[in-house]
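Re: your question from the hallway

Yes, I did run it. Sequences:
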Amino acid sequence: MTEVPTVDFPTLWFVPSWLEAHGVEELSSPALWRLVSQLRCDGERLPAMFTGWALGGEVYRCGDYGCVCGWEYEYEPGEPMAAW
Ligand SMILES: [Zn+2]
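Structure:
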């Protein structure tokens, strides 16, 4: 078993959710950790797809980006938001 550290930084949780909604099998803990580490959002490191901080209730809709799957993701207050 690989020890997986706690995710104690803001990151784009939206991305692993999006991947799972689009047919990617559920990520293993180490894979998920690597992914959210790459997507880390803080003062120094903002991923290219970062678009701002949610006030809460903002919704990402796949349809806005040309995808027809109908998937939506509602952001929690303070969560970093992303454009795909
Ligand atoms: Zn989609």
